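Reopening this ticket.

The earlier resolution said the output was attached, but the attachment link was broken on my side. Pasting everything inline this time so it's all in one place.
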Amino acid sequence: MGGMIKFVLFCNKLGQTRLSRYYEEVALGQREALEGEIVRTCLRRTDAHCNLFEHRGYKVIYKRYASLFFIVGVDGEENELAVLELIHLIVETLDKYFENVCELDMMFFFDRVHFIVDEMIVNGFLVDANKANALAPLRLLDMDARG
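Inline output:
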């Protein structure tokens, strides 16, 4: 991936944000407006639409898995197919950890979801595309917690 990831959003089909991670400075009020606009756009689009649109200078790529939307905003230089692969990689990694991730996992274990995303994306760049590497520190924490 050559460009930069600007934000990652996970939301449900009611438009409620379950995770938001920004990799550039965006004021809180602007974040709420941006998320609302992007999520409403994703919810309005049908399967006949492509998974890409431009909004406020961002290239927005999204994918729906069951009742969850995984949305990534990038700069104009980013490869759309690479971002779709990234979204799928994140979902596969979450599935591996939660054994079929669902919205409740994101609500009750939001710290784990953030941890996984943070292991894969740092400062807007993909740093590790290996599921096992992304999950290893979390598995150690889980073992330590069980003691």
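Reporter confirms the inline version is readable. The domain at 5-146 is CATH 3.30.450.60 (Beta-Lactamase). The chain has one domain: 5-146.
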